[in-house]
Amino acid sequence: MALYDPFGRSINYLRLSVTDRCNLRCIYCMPAAGVHAIKHADVLSFEELLTVSRAAVAIGVEKIRVTGGEPLVRKGIIPFLAELATTPGLKRLVLTTNGILLPEMAAELRCAGVESLNISLDSLQPDTFDSITRGGNILKVFEGIKAAEEAGFKRIKINMVVIRGVNDHEVADFAALTLKRPYHVRFIEYMPTLRDDSWKARTISGSEILGKLALRYSLQAESKAAMDGPASYYRIAGAAGRVGVITPVSCHFCNECNRIRVTSTGIAKSCLFATETHDLKPYIHAGDDQALRDALRYVVTTKPEHHAIEERAQRNMTMPMSQVGG
Ligand SMILES: Nc1nc2c(ncn2[C@@H]2O[C@H](COP(=O)(O)OP(=O)(O)OP(=O)(O)O)[C@@H](O)[C@H]2O)c(=O)[nH]1
Ligand SMILES: C[S@@+](CC[C@H](N)C(=O)[O-])C[C@H]1O[C@@H](n2cnc3c(N)ncnc32)[C@H](O)[C@@H]1O
Ligand code: SF4
Ligand code: SF4
Question: In ligand 2, which atom is closest to the CA atom of 17?
Answer without folding.
Answer: 3
